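Q: Here's a chain of 277 amino acids. Please give me its 3D structure as tokens.
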Amino acid sequence: MKRFLVFSLALLTAAASFAQSSSDVSQQSVRVVPVPDRDRELSVRIWTDKEEYRIGENINIYYRTNRDAYVLIFSEDPNGETRQLLPNAYDDNNYVQGGRTYSIPNRGYRLEVTPPRGREKLSIVAFSERNRTLDTYRTRKSEAFPKSEGPKAAIARVEPRPDTGRGHRYAEDSTTIRITQGWQNDDRWDDDDRWDDDDRWDRRYGRLTIDSDPGGAYVYINGAYRGVTPLDLGQVSPGNFDIILYRPGYYQERKRVRVDAGERERVDEELRLIRYR
């Protein structure tokens, strides 16, 4: 009888020990793994009303975030020059509400497609928090759409710490557009007839030379883009022409000139710098 009791106690002790050991193993092997909340991850999207634009056309840029955020928008032209489109001198409010579609331009200005031709990249970066570094990207008074280092530099400057990997602090997106030649609505000259040698000038036509200070202004004649100053056009049929000179950061200059056969008409304009208060 004693042996049976001793054996039973031994079995109970072993069973208790095994149960405790199993409990310890179970507690050590179970972990709480949170499921990512996709709705909390910051995301942003940018797009345009179409994929191809002619020089001189207006463009609308649309963007949207899923959460309240601060956004920066940049453009990189085919030559690799990057400019900041938002904030800009006309619109320095870059705070957006999640789930709402925004667009630029949206007040008192327009965005016009300018040279060079080729592929242009539009990029947006959204930040969930505002800080002093982000404020440095707000309106710069000297130029409406200032040159910039681009979205990657903005992320590096605004977010010095690595992101958590869940996209909670910043998100980015980009799209591209194709820029083609401007409108060809005036057949009074051939764009290829730009002469430097007066001896080759056909005297049945006139000649139009356009320059500006500073140079590099875009030239529009009768609504069509014709080039960048300094610009010399030959084979111009006699007649009247409306000329617009435009350079970012300067007021547009408008001139109406007449070109006569066998004569050269010169336009030389001093551009006025826009000063923003």
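Q: Can you summarize the key feature?
A: The first strand starts at residue 44 and ends at 48.
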